[in-house]
Each structure stands twice: as structure tokens, then as C-alpha cells.
Design brief:
heterodimer, A: alpha/beta, Rossmann fold, GMP Synthetase, Chain A, domain 3, six-stranded antiparallel beta sheet, about 35% helix, globular, B: Non-ribosomal Peptide Synthetase Peptidyl Carrier Protein, Chain A
Amino acid sequence: MITNVLDYLDRSAGLFPCKTALSDNKNSVTYEEMQNTAKAIGSAIIKRSGAKNSPVVVFIDRNIESVISFMGVAMSGNFYVPVDRQLPVKRIELIFSTLQPVAAIIFEKDNKILDEIGFEGERLLYDEAAEHEADNEALKLIREISIDTDPLYAIFTSGSTGVPKGVLVCHRSVIDLIENFAEAFDFDETRVFGNQAPFDFDVSVKDIYSCIRNGASMHVIPKLFFSFPAKLINCINERKINTIIWATSALRIIENLNALEKTLPETLKTIMFSGEVMPNKVLNYWREKLPDVNYVNLYGPTEITCNCLYYKVDRPFRDEEPLPIGVPFRNTDILLLDGNELVTENGVKGEICVRGTSLAHGYYNNPEKTAEAFCQNPLNKFYPELIYRTGDLAKKGDDGLYYFVSRKDYQIKHMGHRIELSEVEIAINSLPYVEAGCCIYDKPKEQIVLFYQAENECDKDILKDAGKLLPKYMLPNRMLHFTALPMTKNAKIDRVRLKGEYLDNA
Amino acid sequence: MRTAIYERMIKMKEQLIKILAELRPDVDFENETALVTDGILDSFDIVSLVAELNSEFDITIGVDDLEPENFDTVDAMAELINELAD
């Protein structure tokens, strides 16, 4: 029985020792090399920290070293937390204060960030850790005492209180996901995955572990190529990439730029997408250019380990039709709930709630938020059983497929990222010269719109200063200055009026 | 003649800088020399920018024109627009 994702690595290193497992623009690594380097890093962590089931931060980049570091952390019996070094220092600091990591795997340049936030844990330089002597006895002992519900990683997402939440996922949940993917999509060692998703985005979990489980290969595509699609298409053809699991927005960029007009990717067999609703207009563009490819729509939040529903696109759709999110993966149950009542009628919407092994453990070091989202199944009064409430509304069609309807609350999907608008507001309202501000999302234009009250117009300062607190994708795309914002009778900013007037004028 | 072309270039560049400033008011476009290579403009910026330039200057920026070199500086963008407008 597979109880640890490292069992996948061991198996593939045994079967395909000399095969290229991972590659990026500069480097590549075979299965045997990846296993050895992961052991070296794991031994370094054990020696320096001596911790078990504790957070180890990995400063990530678009390179194979990030993935090898993840495996190294798993070898040490701890869990990895990918952190993008380009995030504002303030945000990195928030993540670190939630985590209190025992160690961080870094490159020389990251010392500056760690100094700035006063990090007191162990700093392991990647290059040194990768050369560390493997302590096979210690590694073996760690594996023997590990169980499949031990955490594998934590990935941070936007939180409504202004503090990002770290979703903690265990080995068992990832194994459940990856076994399902292999079975549902016929993944084997012939697959070459073209990784688009950054490693602090859980879409990449599917690339990494589908690759390692199947003895396949994964190529890390540079971010720059997604702005300049001629390079991207060349890269797909040169590397013979046949499977892509991308954010919907990445596929949309290609359509927006009409990038398939001259040269086509020739090797693609499977295209999967998730992260936000895929417009059929975009999908039809791809289907017309590449009719022989298998397309799969994936749905699910980070909290249930990537995806819980999938739809293999098996018929034509008009541009204005909705694309189904399909059926649950095996070993996953979907409940549509209206409050605590089960929705049984087709066409009636309810909140998507998920039951199964795929549920994350919760938000690290945040019992309140965990209890809100991971709660007792209201349909079960007899024994403890958790469900995850996604906050997404869906309905079931007469065709037996699920269809996404909308978000329930104040969370939006913008450029593939899940964002709590209140987190953006908290950052902007923290600026000394902003008297008040609130955000809305202009869905048709895909813009975060900020209404703010300040003495003088200060768009530039807001972007500059909020940019020190928030990742770029969370910054407002349009800003409207007011000397006085409209208020409701209860002395709250009149969001409804602002939104209405804004959209009327658009 | 030379001055007319020159005038046209100047005017176009001003218009371009205006578009860029609206897209990203936080960036000092006139002094940046590696807008794309340094990751100051990301893929979403490029998508919006290309759409904006196409409509504003009545040009069609094709796949082959989408090269980092053409977007790293304001001058390179101006040159690309100028080429496509002819």
C-alpha cells in the first residue's frame, strides 16, 4: 500500500533510474539523481532541525530545484511550504508568523528577506543541502514512523481577515488525488507534463505528483513564455510536451492573443484546465485549432486537494453555453446543501460541499477559520464526519452533470487567483492617506475596481504602497477618487449604490 | 518630410506613454529598459496592452511580433507600432 508520496519516487527511481524526471530551461535531473538529492536535503534538514511534521519553507522559482526541495522536505518527515520570494516582504512576514517555520531552504539572495523579517529558524542553502551526506539510517527511521495522515505541504491562499491562510494537506489526500488522475485520464510513463502553474499554486501539485507517480517527465515552462506565445509553442514542440494542466487564464491568454494563428503545438494529447470558469468561447478556439486533443474541465478548491469534479469534454458547445464541471472523482462525494438541507432536485442550486479522503486537515495554526469551513456533515447525526463547504454554488442538470453557478460570498476569481476582496480593502484602508475605500469586481471587464476617499487623488501612491502589502494580482485595476464616499443609513459605505452607478456608466 | 515623420513619431510615442501610464500608473516607463525581461509587465499586462495598441493605432500585432525585445522599452514598442502602421 502506498502511504507516502516518496513511495512513488522510490518506485519510479527503481523502474526508470536514468530517465529525465524534471527539466527547466537550464537544468534537468533523472529519477535517480532526484532521489539522491532529496535524500541529501532531507538529511540536512534532519541534522539541523531535528523536527518532525513541522513547517519548512521553500523559496520557489520556476526551476527544478523547487520540486527537488519539496521531496527533500518530505524525506525529512516535515511538510513544505512554497513561498514566492517576489511577494511583498510584509506578506512573507505574515506567512512566517502564522507558520513559525523550523527551517527554510533558500538561495544566497534570500538571506536579505530573512534578515528583514528576523527569521530565527535554520537556513539551509540549497546548494549546500544538496551536497549533504545522506544519512540513510535516519531517513529510514523517519519513513518507518511516518503515517499517511502526516502533512505533506501547506499552500497559502487569500484570507478575508487580511491574514493569508495556509491549507494543510496530508500524503493520503495527495495519493487519493493522483491515483484518481492516473485512472481517469490514463496517465503513464509516456506523459510529458508542461508545467505552467507556479509551485505556490496547488494546480502544480497535479503536475508534480502525476509525473513522479507514473515515471513520466515534467518540464517547467518559464513564466515569460506565457506573454510571448511563439516561444511557448516552440517549447511545447521541442520538449514534446503532451499533457498540460493549466490555469484557465493561461489558455485564455493564448486565445486573446490569437497565438495559434500560425504555428500549432503538435504534440499535445491532453489539455486540462481549472482555477476559474472556462468560457466556451476560449475553449472553442482551442478545439477548432486542435480538434484531436482531449479536453478536461477540472473543478475544486485547494482545501479538498486540487479537484473534486471533472468533466471530459465530449460534445460540442456553443460559445454562450455553460461548460459542466461534471462528475465527482472516485472516492469523493459531493453534497449540494442549502443551509443544512440537502438539495435533491435537478436545476436547484446549492452550496458544493465535499466529503472524503481529499479533505485537507484545515488551516495551519488557525482553528477558528478551520472550524468555519471544515464542519460536521449536517446530514449525519451519528458519528463525527467532516465536510468542506466550498462557498461555491452549483446545480445538477438533467444530464446528471454538475454546473457551476457562482460564488456565495465576497470571494472572487481574478486572473486565476482566488481573492478575498476584503483582504484588498484591508490593505488599502491601512494606507495613512486613504480615508476609506471599498472594492468591487467588474466581472465583464475582469477588473478589481477601488472606490476611495482621500483628500487628493493619489492613484499612484496607492498602487505603490499597496504593492508592498499585496501580490500584484490583488492590486486594483481601476481607481476612482472621491472626496466623500456615499454612505448608507447605517453609516456603512454604500457598496450597492457604488457598484450600480459604476456598472451603469461602464 | 523628415520633420513630418518625426512629428508623427513624437505624437505616437506620447500617446503610447499615456496608454502605458493608464495600464500601470506605478511604473516609470520612460526609464525602464527591461520591462518584460525583469517581469515588470506580466502576461496579463501584455494581453491588455496588445488589445489597447491594436485598437488605438489601428494595427494588428501578430504572434510573430510578440517577442520580448519588442516590449522591453517604450522605444521598442514605438518602433513596432511604427512598422506595423506602415
